[in-house]
Design goal:
Layout: H1 3-15, H2 17-32, H3 38-57, H4 69-84, H5 89-107, H6 116-155, E1 160-163, E2 166-172, H7 177-194, E3 198-205, H8 211-226, E4 230-234, H9 238-247, E5 255-257, H10 260-270, H11 277-283
Parallel strand pairs: 2-3, 3-4, 4-5
Antiparallel strand pairs: 1-2
Helix pairs in contact: 1-3, 1-6, 2-3, 2-5, 3-4, 4-6, 5-6, 7-8, 10-11
């Protein structure tokens, strides 16, 4: 498509704006099956139409042409909104492609209104917009999935205050590199926020401990020690103890306890608070 063709299309779109926007909105509404209000859908369609019209008036011949900044921004905004609202990539892209049907429905097959060459050029232009929208949707969806994964990691790794000066991190499930980083960050921040000199890493809910998991635990404990806190690992079940021994994993001078109650009792005594095992269990 040449710049002159783009401007001819812009003139046609401007003349028949109300008809094309109405037809476009109705087609998209049927595709989305009422999942957007008519007012919201009309607003989105009108904004996109204005952006397309502005790009064509500037002589844009493709999505990468000068003068399409406003159009690409509108497409990105639409993609992000649809991704967060749970629409599929097909539903999102069809919302762009449907403008071709709207133009054809409005002009019919009249060569006097729009030539086949101009319609073919417009069709190719809209196809590039649809592909750009699909790519923007996938990027927005990936970003949303990453954000949700990070939130789930934080929710699955709570840091709780067990006693004055003692915080605990109950770890449930597999401890991989990404999660161990979250555990370390949240524990260190909790030590700063609460000014606690003691911490407990409870691995009762960790199904298995291998060399990698042990390394993650050791790094977290060392990080806590560098913050001036004493860290105890609890939840060492018989099966885990056997695995640790068979793998030759050395915890060095790090204190380990069989249960969280044992670890809490130990640290309370370290802090100068005498408490029985039964009392420690009642705290938990």
């Amino acid at each position: 498509m040449h710049a002159s063709g783009a401007k001819r299309l812009a003139s046609l779109l401007s003349e028949r704006q109300d008809e094309i926007v109405a037809s476009w909105t109705e087609t998209v509404r049927e595709t989305l099956r009422g999942r957007l209000t008519k007012a919201e859908l009309s607003r989105q369609t009108e904004e996109l139409y204005a952006a397309i019209l502005s790009a064509l008036e500037s002589g844009a011949t493709s999505i990468g042409s000068p003068g399409t900044a406003g159009l690409t921004a509108s497409l990105a905004e639409l993609s992000q909104a649809r991704a967060r609202s749970g629409f599929s990539v097909t539903e999102t892209a069809v919302s762009i492609f449907a403008v071709k049907d709207a133009l054809r429905a409005t002009t019919g097959d009249s060569e006097e209104v729009i030539s086949k060459a101009d319609f073919a050029d417009f069709s190719a232009f809209v196809d590039s917009l649809g592909l750009h929208t699909a790519e923007a949707y996938v990027a927005a969806r990936d970003a949303l999935i990453t954000e949700q994964s990070e939130q789930l990691l934080e929710l699955s790794t709570p840091v709780v205050k067990l006693w004055d000066g003692i915080v605990g991190v109950p770890i449930i499930g597999t401890l991989d590199s990404a999660r161990s980083q979250v555990v370390m960050e949240r524990l260190l921040q909790a030590l700063v926020d609460t000014n606690s000199p003691y911490a407990i890493l409870d691995i009762t809910g960790v199904p298995a401990v291998d060399t990698q998991v042990a390394q993650h635990l050791l790094k977290t404990v060392v990080a806590a020690q560098l913050m001036g806190a004493q860290c105890v690992i609890s939840g060492i079940r018989p099966q885990i103890a056997q695995t640790i021994v068979s793998l030759g994993i050395e915890f060095g001078d790090i204190v380990t306890k069989a249960t969280l109650a044992d670890a809490l009792q130990y640290l309370m005594r370290q802090s100068g608070t005498e408490v029985s095992r039964r009392a420690a269990r009642s705290v938990l």
